[in-house]
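Re: [ENG-882] Designed sequences occasionally contain unexpected residues at chain ends

Forwarding the minimal case from QA. C-alpha coordinates:
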Protein backbone atom coordinates (compact mmCIF):
# COMPACT_ATOMS: atom_id res chain seq x y z
CA UNK A 1 0.00 0.00 0.00
CA UNK A 2 1.21 3.54 -0.75
CA UNK A 3 -0.43 6.87 -0.10
CA UNK A 4 0.06 10.45 -1.34
CA UNK A 5 -1.65 13.82 -1.04
CA UNK A 6 -1.74 16.48 -3.74
CA UNK A 7 -3.31 19.89 -4.18
CA UNK A 8 -3.83 22.28 -7.08
CA UNK A 9 -5.10 25.88 -7.07
CA UNK A 10 -8.07 27.51 -8.73
CA UNK A 11 -7.64 30.59 -10.92
CA UNK A 12 -8.99 33.92 -12.05
CA UNK A 13 -8.90 35.08 -15.66
CA UNK A 14 -7.86 38.74 -15.85
CA UNK A 15 -8.54 38.93 -19.55
CA UNK A 16 -9.41 36.77 -22.53
CA UNK A 17 -11.74 33.96 -21.45
CA UNK A 18 -13.73 32.38 -24.32
CA UNK A 19 -11.68 34.27 -26.95
CA UNK A 20 -8.72 32.10 -25.82
CA UNK A 21 -10.63 29.02 -27.04
CA UNK A 22 -10.56 30.68 -30.49
CA UNK A 23 -6.84 31.46 -30.48
CA UNK A 24 -6.69 34.83 -28.68
CA UNK A 25 -4.26 35.71 -25.90
CA UNK A 26 -5.51 35.52 -22.30
CA UNK A 27 -4.03 36.39 -18.90
CA UNK A 28 -4.74 34.26 -15.82
CA UNK A 29 -3.48 33.90 -12.25
CA UNK A 30 -3.64 31.11 -9.71
CA UNK A 31 -5.49 31.88 -6.47
CA UNK A 32 -4.99 30.67 -2.95
CA UNK A 33 -7.93 28.24 -2.95
CA UNK A 34 -7.18 24.60 -3.67
CA UNK A 35 -8.63 21.21 -4.52
CA UNK A 36 -7.06 18.62 -2.21
CA UNK A 37 -6.71 14.96 -3.13
CA UNK A 38 -5.46 11.97 -1.22
CA UNK A 39 -4.76 8.74 -3.07
CA UNK A 40 -4.13 5.32 -1.59
CA UNK A 41 -2.99 2.61 -3.96
CA UNK A 42 -3.63 -0.79 -2.38
CA UNK A 43 -1.59 -3.94 -2.89
CA UNK A 44 -3.30 -6.60 -5.05
CA UNK A 45 -5.53 -9.02 -3.16
CA UNK A 46 -4.81 -12.77 -3.17
CA UNK A 47 -7.09 -14.35 -5.85
CA UNK A 48 -9.31 -16.09 -3.25
CA UNK A 49 -10.27 -12.63 -1.80
CA UNK A 50 -11.95 -11.27 -4.93
CA UNK A 51 -10.68 -8.45 -7.12
CA UNK A 52 -10.98 -5.27 -5.02
CA UNK A 53 -12.38 -1.94 -6.14
CA UNK A 54 -11.65 1.60 -7.28
CA UNK A 55 -13.25 4.16 -4.98
CA UNK A 56 -13.88 7.90 -5.22
CA UNK A 57 -15.01 9.84 -2.17
CA UNK A 58 -16.24 13.43 -2.65
CA UNK A 59 -16.00 14.36 0.99
CA UNK A 60 -17.60 17.84 0.80
CA UNK A 61 -20.73 16.28 -0.66
CA UNK A 62 -20.63 13.13 1.48
CA UNK A 63 -20.69 10.96 -1.66
CA UNK A 64 -18.77 7.74 -2.25
CA UNK A 65 -18.59 5.93 -5.60
CA UNK A 66 -17.13 2.49 -6.06
CA UNK A 67 -16.53 0.15 -8.99
CA UNK A 68 -15.22 -3.39 -8.69
CA UNK A 69 -12.12 -4.02 -10.78
CA UNK A 70 -13.92 -6.84 -12.60
CA UNK A 71 -16.83 -4.54 -13.56
CA UNK A 72 -14.40 -1.93 -14.90
CA UNK A 73 -12.63 -4.60 -16.94
CA UNK A 74 -15.92 -5.98 -18.22
CA UNK A 75 -17.09 -2.57 -19.49
CA UNK A 76 -13.78 -0.96 -20.51
CA UNK A 77 -12.01 -4.04 -21.85
CA UNK A 78 -8.49 -5.28 -21.46
CA UNK A 79 -6.70 -2.07 -22.48
CA UNK A 80 -3.47 -1.49 -20.58
CA UNK A 81 -2.64 1.72 -18.75
CA UNK A 82 0.31 3.84 -19.89
CA UNK A 83 0.80 6.70 -17.46
CA UNK A 84 3.60 8.31 -19.45
CA UNK A 85 1.53 8.89 -22.63
CA UNK A 86 -1.57 11.05 -22.21
CA UNK A 87 -4.23 10.12 -24.76
CA UNK A 88 -7.65 11.58 -25.49
CA UNK A 89 -10.71 9.69 -24.35
CA UNK A 90 -12.32 8.15 -27.46
CA UNK A 91 -16.09 8.65 -27.98
CA UNK A 92 -16.61 4.90 -27.37
CA UNK A 93 -14.75 5.01 -24.07
CA UNK A 94 -16.65 8.15 -22.98
CA UNK A 95 -19.89 6.21 -23.56
CA UNK A 96 -18.69 3.21 -21.55
CA UNK A 97 -17.49 5.46 -18.72
CA UNK A 98 -20.82 7.32 -18.75
CA UNK A 99 -22.57 3.95 -18.29
CA UNK A 100 -20.31 3.11 -15.33
CA UNK A 101 -21.06 6.52 -13.78
CA UNK A 102 -24.80 6.10 -14.34
CA UNK A 103 -24.73 2.84 -12.35
CA UNK A 104 -23.69 4.88 -9.31
CA UNK A 105 -27.05 6.66 -9.03
CA UNK A 106 -25.73 10.19 -8.51
CA UNK A 107 -28.50 12.17 -6.74
CA UNK A 108 -30.68 14.01 -9.31
CA UNK A 109 -29.89 17.39 -7.75
CA UNK A 110 -26.18 16.71 -8.29
CA UNK A 111 -26.31 15.38 -11.85
CA UNK A 112 -23.71 18.05 -12.81
CA UNK A 113 -21.15 15.99 -10.91
CA UNK A 114 -21.32 13.24 -13.55
CA UNK A 115 -18.72 14.90 -15.78
CA UNK A 116 -16.29 15.18 -12.83
CA UNK A 117 -16.83 11.52 -11.90
CA UNK A 118 -16.38 10.46 -15.55
CA UNK A 119 -13.19 12.49 -15.71
CA UNK A 120 -11.94 10.75 -12.55
CA UNK A 121 -12.67 7.29 -13.97
CA UNK A 122 -10.91 8.17 -17.18
CA UNK A 123 -7.77 9.44 -15.44
CA UNK A 124 -7.69 6.57 -12.94
CA UNK A 125 -8.13 3.75 -15.43
CA UNK A 126 -5.73 5.36 -17.92
CA UNK A 127 -2.99 5.76 -15.32
CA UNK A 128 -3.54 2.76 -13.02
CA UNK A 129 -5.76 0.42 -15.01
CA UNK A 130 -8.03 -1.52 -12.66
CA UNK A 131 -5.70 -1.67 -9.65
CA UNK A 132 -7.57 -1.29 -6.40
CA UNK A 133 -7.27 2.09 -4.67
CA UNK A 134 -9.12 5.00 -3.15
CA UNK A 135 -9.15 8.72 -3.98
CA UNK A 136 -10.61 11.27 -1.58
CA UNK A 137 -11.33 14.81 -2.80
CA UNK A 138 -12.15 18.04 -0.94
CA UNK A 139 -12.16 21.54 -2.39
CA UNK A 140 -11.91 25.12 -1.10
CA UNK A 141 -13.42 26.31 -4.40
CA UNK A 142 -17.06 26.91 -5.26
CA UNK A 143 -17.87 24.41 -8.03
CA UNK A 144 -19.02 25.70 -11.43
CA UNK A 145 -18.40 29.37 -10.57
CA UNK A 146 -15.61 30.49 -12.88
CA UNK A 147 -12.72 29.89 -10.47
CA UNK A 148 -11.42 26.83 -12.30
CA UNK A 149 -12.81 24.12 -10.01
CA UNK A 150 -12.80 21.63 -12.90
CA UNK A 151 -9.16 22.30 -13.80
CA UNK A 152 -7.94 22.18 -10.20
CA UNK A 153 -9.87 18.89 -9.81
CA UNK A 154 -8.17 17.48 -12.95
CA UNK A 155 -4.70 18.71 -11.96
CA UNK A 156 -4.84 17.52 -8.36
CA UNK A 157 -6.29 14.11 -9.32
CA UNK A 158 -3.77 13.67 -12.16
CA UNK A 159 -0.92 14.79 -9.87
CA UNK A 160 -1.86 12.34 -7.10
CA UNK A 161 -2.38 9.44 -9.51
CA UNK A 162 0.88 10.09 -11.35
CA UNK A 163 2.85 10.38 -8.11
CA UNK A 164 2.29 6.64 -7.58
CA UNK A 165 2.67 5.61 -11.22
CA UNK A 166 5.56 4.28 -13.29
CA UNK A 167 5.91 7.71 -14.94
CA UNK A 168 6.75 9.60 -11.71
CA UNK A 169 7.96 7.92 -8.59
CA UNK A 170 7.61 9.86 -5.38
CA UNK A 171 9.30 8.78 -2.16
CA UNK A 172 6.19 8.14 -0.05
CA UNK A 173 8.17 7.86 3.18
CA UNK A 174 8.79 11.63 3.22
CA UNK A 175 6.27 13.95 4.84
CA UNK A 176 7.43 17.24 3.23
CA UNK A 177 5.67 18.53 0.10
CA UNK A 178 7.41 17.06 -2.93
CA UNK A 179 7.89 19.46 -5.89
CA UNK A 180 7.46 17.97 -9.35
CA UNK A 181 10.16 18.83 -11.91
CA UNK A 182 9.23 20.85 -15.02
CA UNK A 183 8.90 17.66 -17.11
CA UNK A 184 6.76 16.01 -14.46
CA UNK A 185 4.52 19.10 -14.26
CA UNK A 186 4.18 19.01 -18.03
CA UNK A 187 3.00 15.40 -17.83
CA UNK A 188 0.49 16.28 -15.08
CA UNK A 189 -0.72 19.19 -17.22
CA UNK A 190 -1.20 17.03 -20.31
CA UNK A 191 -3.23 14.45 -18.40
CA UNK A 192 -5.25 17.21 -16.70
CA UNK A 193 -6.00 18.69 -20.13
CA UNK A 194 -7.41 15.33 -21.24
CA UNK A 195 -9.58 15.39 -18.10
CA UNK A 196 -10.72 18.97 -18.79
CA UNK A 197 -11.85 17.87 -22.25
CA UNK A 198 -14.33 15.50 -20.59
CA UNK A 199 -15.71 18.32 -18.41
CA UNK A 200 -15.41 21.34 -20.78
CA UNK A 201 -15.81 19.76 -24.22
CA UNK A 202 -13.37 22.12 -25.95
CA UNK A 203 -11.03 23.66 -23.37
CA UNK A 204 -8.26 26.04 -24.38
CA UNK A 205 -5.99 24.55 -21.71
CA UNK A 206 -5.47 27.84 -19.86
CA UNK A 207 -7.18 26.70 -16.64
CA UNK A 208 -5.24 23.44 -16.23
CA UNK A 209 -1.99 25.19 -17.24
CA UNK A 210 -2.25 27.96 -14.63
CA UNK A 211 -3.41 25.44 -12.02
CA UNK A 212 -0.41 23.20 -12.78
CA UNK A 213 2.31 25.85 -12.96
CA UNK A 214 0.83 28.49 -10.60
CA UNK A 215 1.62 32.22 -10.60
CA UNK A 216 0.44 34.49 -13.38
CA UNK A 217 0.53 33.50 -17.04
CA UNK A 218 -0.06 34.86 -20.49
CA UNK A 219 -1.49 32.05 -22.62
CA UNK A 220 -2.20 31.62 -26.33
CA UNK A 221 -2.84 28.46 -28.38
CA UNK A 222 -1.34 26.12 -25.80
CA UNK A 223 1.77 28.29 -25.24
CA UNK A 224 2.36 29.84 -21.84
CA UNK A 225 4.60 32.70 -20.76
CA UNK A 226 5.10 33.30 -17.06
CA UNK A 227 4.58 36.94 -16.15
CA UNK A 228 5.10 38.91 -12.96
CA UNK A 229 3.14 41.90 -11.78
CA UNK A 230 5.40 44.90 -11.07
CA UNK A 231 3.14 46.01 -8.19
CA UNK A 232 0.43 44.31 -6.10
CA UNK A 233 -2.89 43.83 -7.91
CA UNK A 234 -5.79 43.46 -5.51
CA UNK A 235 -8.93 41.83 -6.83
CA UNK A 236 -12.23 41.39 -5.07
CA UNK A 237 -14.10 38.24 -6.14
CA UNK A 238 -17.90 38.34 -5.91
CA UNK A 239 -19.79 35.10 -6.41
CA UNK A 240 -23.24 35.73 -7.93
CA UNK A 241 -24.12 32.16 -6.88
CA UNK A 242 -25.89 31.75 -10.23
CA UNK A 243 -25.07 28.22 -11.35
CA UNK A 244 -23.80 27.59 -14.87
CA UNK A 245 -21.83 25.13 -16.90
CA UNK A 246 -18.65 25.98 -18.76
CA UNK A 247 -19.19 23.31 -21.47
CA UNK A 248 -22.57 24.82 -22.51
CA UNK A 249 -21.23 28.40 -22.44
CA UNK A 250 -18.17 27.52 -24.55
CA UNK A 251 -20.43 25.71 -27.05
CA UNK A 252 -22.77 28.76 -27.13
CA UNK A 253 -19.91 31.09 -28.09
CA UNK A 254 -18.78 28.71 -30.85
CA UNK A 255 -22.33 28.62 -32.23
CA UNK A 256 -22.46 32.42 -32.24
CA UNK A 257 -19.08 32.44 -34.01
CA UNK A 258 -20.37 30.13 -36.71
CA UNK A 259 -23.49 32.33 -37.21
CA UNK A 260 -21.45 35.58 -37.42
CA UNK A 261 -17.92 34.51 -38.38
CA UNK A 262 -16.54 37.93 -39.41
CA UNK A 263 -18.03 39.91 -36.54
CA UNK A 264 -16.92 37.35 -33.96
CA UNK A 265 -13.44 37.11 -35.48
CA UNK A 266 -13.13 40.87 -34.92
CA UNK A 267 -14.31 40.47 -31.32
CA UNK A 268 -11.69 37.76 -30.71
CA UNK A 269 -9.00 39.93 -32.31
CA UNK A 270 -9.97 42.86 -30.08
CA UNK A 271 -9.69 40.61 -27.01
CA UNK A 272 -6.26 39.47 -28.18
CA UNK A 273 -5.05 43.12 -28.20
CA UNK A 274 -6.66 43.79 -24.82
CA UNK A 275 -4.91 40.80 -23.22
CA UNK A 276 -1.52 41.69 -24.72
CA UNK A 277 -1.85 45.30 -23.55
CA UNK A 278 -2.98 44.16 -20.10
CA UNK A 279 -0.03 41.81 -19.82
CA UNK A 280 2.41 44.59 -20.78
CA UNK A 281 0.86 47.04 -18.28
CA UNK A 282 0.87 44.49 -15.47
CA UNK A 283 4.58 43.92 -16.02
CA UNK A 284 5.59 47.56 -16.57
CA UNK A 285 7.38 49.17 -13.62
CA UNK A 286 5.37 51.68 -11.60
CA UNK A 287 7.44 53.61 -9.06
CA UNK A 288 5.39 56.55 -7.80
CA UNK A 289 1.78 57.25 -6.87
CA UNK A 290 1.06 58.91 -10.23
CA UNK A 291 2.32 55.99 -12.28
CA UNK A 292 0.56 53.49 -9.98
CA UNK A 293 -2.73 55.37 -10.46
CA UNK A 294 -2.20 55.61 -14.23
CA UNK A 295 -1.42 51.86 -14.37
CA UNK A 296 -4.54 50.97 -12.40
CA UNK A 297 -6.75 53.22 -14.52
CA UNK A 298 -5.51 51.51 -17.68
CA UNK A 299 -6.14 48.08 -16.17
CA UNK A 300 -9.67 49.16 -15.18
CA UNK A 301 -10.39 50.43 -18.67
CA UNK A 302 -9.15 47.20 -20.26
CA UNK A 303 -11.25 45.13 -17.83
CA UNK A 304 -14.34 47.14 -18.82
CA UNK A 305 -13.56 46.77 -22.52
CA UNK A 306 -13.11 43.01 -22.07
CA UNK A 307 -16.41 42.80 -20.16
CA UNK A 308 -18.18 44.62 -23.02
CA UNK A 309 -16.84 42.07 -25.49
CA UNK A 310 -17.84 39.16 -23.24
CA UNK A 311 -21.35 40.63 -23.28
CA UNK A 312 -21.05 40.70 -27.05
CA UNK A 313 -20.20 36.97 -26.96
CA UNK A 314 -23.42 36.34 -25.00
CA UNK A 315 -21.85 35.11 -21.75
CA UNK A 316 -22.83 37.85 -19.30
CA UNK A 317 -25.88 37.52 -17.03
CA UNK A 318 -28.32 39.81 -15.21
CA UNK A 319 -26.66 38.91 -11.89
CA UNK A 320 -23.23 39.78 -13.29
CA UNK A 321 -24.55 43.11 -14.62
CA UNK A 322 -25.97 43.89 -11.21
CA UNK A 323 -22.56 43.39 -9.57
CA UNK A 324 -20.95 45.59 -12.26
CA UNK A 325 -23.48 48.41 -11.66
CA UNK A 326 -23.15 48.17 -7.88
CA UNK A 327 -19.34 48.37 -8.07
CA UNK A 328 -19.55 51.27 -10.51
CA UNK A 329 -21.42 53.31 -7.87
CA UNK A 330 -18.13 53.19 -5.94
CA UNK A 331 -16.11 53.96 -9.11
CA UNK A 332 -14.81 50.39 -9.22
CA UNK A 333 -14.34 48.50 -12.49
CA UNK A 334 -15.27 44.82 -12.85
CA UNK A 335 -15.51 41.97 -15.31
CA UNK A 336 -16.75 38.41 -15.15
CA UNK A 337 -14.12 35.72 -14.72
CA UNK A 338 -14.10 32.23 -16.20
CA UNK A 339 -16.96 31.09 -18.37
CA UNK A 340 -19.55 33.67 -17.18
CA UNK A 341 -23.31 33.03 -17.44
CA UNK A 342 -23.35 33.55 -13.64
CA UNK A 343 -20.45 32.54 -11.41
CA UNK A 344 -17.86 35.04 -10.20
CA UNK A 345 -17.04 38.67 -10.96
CA UNK A 346 -13.63 40.33 -10.49
CA UNK A 347 -13.35 43.90 -9.24
CA UNK A 348 -10.03 45.74 -9.14
CA UNK A 349 -9.44 47.30 -5.73
CA UNK A 350 -7.24 50.28 -6.61
CA UNK A 351 -4.59 51.76 -4.35
CA UNK A 352 -6.64 54.98 -3.75
CA UNK A 353 -9.37 52.82 -2.20
CA UNK A 354 -6.91 51.12 0.11
CA UNK A 355 -5.35 54.46 1.10
CA UNK A 356 -8.75 56.06 1.75
CA UNK A 357 -9.81 53.12 3.95
CA UNK A 358 -6.54 53.37 5.89
CA UNK A 359 -7.15 57.12 6.26
CA UNK A 360 -10.76 56.53 7.38
CA UNK A 361 -9.61 53.92 9.89
CA UNK A 362 -6.88 56.16 11.33
CA UNK A 363 -9.17 59.20 11.67
CA UNK A 364 -11.99 57.14 13.27
N1 LIG B 1 -14.16 18.88 -6.29
C1 LIG B 1 -14.82 18.34 -7.32
N2 LIG B 1 -15.34 17.10 -7.24
C2 LIG B 1 -15.99 16.55 -8.28
N3 LIG B 1 -16.22 17.17 -9.45
C3 LIG B 1 -15.73 18.40 -9.58
C4 LIG B 1 -15.01 19.06 -8.54
N4 LIG B 1 -14.66 20.27 -8.98
C5 LIG B 1 -15.14 20.38 -10.23
N5 LIG B 1 -15.79 19.27 -10.60
C6 LIG B 1 -16.46 19.02 -11.89
O1 LIG B 1 -16.34 20.19 -12.67
C7 LIG B 1 -17.63 20.76 -12.96
C8 LIG B 1 -17.55 22.26 -12.90
O2 LIG B 1 -16.71 22.67 -13.94
P1 LIG B 1 -16.97 23.95 -14.80
O3 LIG B 1 -15.88 23.99 -15.78
O4 LIG B 1 -18.38 24.01 -15.31
O5 LIG B 1 -16.82 25.16 -13.74
P2 LIG B 1 -15.51 25.79 -13.12
O6 LIG B 1 -14.33 25.02 -13.56
O7 LIG B 1 -15.72 25.95 -11.66
O8 LIG B 1 -15.50 27.24 -13.78
P3 LIG B 1 -14.60 27.77 -15.02
O9 LIG B 1 -14.43 26.63 -15.95
O10 LIG B 1 -15.42 28.86 -15.62
O11 LIG B 1 -13.37 28.27 -14.39
C9 LIG B 1 -18.56 20.19 -11.90
O12 LIG B 1 -19.88 20.14 -12.38
C10 LIG B 1 -17.96 18.78 -11.69
O13 LIG B 1 -18.41 17.91 -12.68
C1 LIG C 1 -14.34 29.96 -20.91
C2 LIG C 1 -12.90 29.51 -20.88
O1 LIG C 1 -12.16 30.35 -21.79
C3 LIG C 1 -12.25 29.71 -19.52
C4 LIG C 1 -12.97 29.04 -18.39
O2 LIG C 1 -12.28 29.33 -17.19
C5 LIG C 1 -12.81 28.07 -21.32
C6 LIG C 1 -11.40 27.61 -21.67
O3 LIG C 1 -10.55 28.43 -21.99
O4 LIG C 1 -11.19 26.39 -21.66
MG1 LIG D 1 -13.90 24.68 -15.57
Amino acid sequence: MAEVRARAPGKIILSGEHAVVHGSTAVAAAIDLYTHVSFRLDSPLPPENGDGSVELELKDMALVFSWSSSRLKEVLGDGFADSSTPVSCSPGRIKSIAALVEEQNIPEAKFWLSSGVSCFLYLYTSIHGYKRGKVVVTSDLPLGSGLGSSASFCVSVAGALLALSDAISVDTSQTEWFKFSKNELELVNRWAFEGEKIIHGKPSGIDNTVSTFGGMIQFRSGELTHIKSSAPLRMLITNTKVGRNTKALVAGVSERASRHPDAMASVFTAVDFISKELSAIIQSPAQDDISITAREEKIEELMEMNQGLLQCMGVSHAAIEMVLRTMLKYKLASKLTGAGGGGCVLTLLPTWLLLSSIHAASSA
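QA comment: On inspection the terminal residues look reasonable. The two ends are 60 Å apart (CA to CA). Proposing we downgrade this to a documentation issue.
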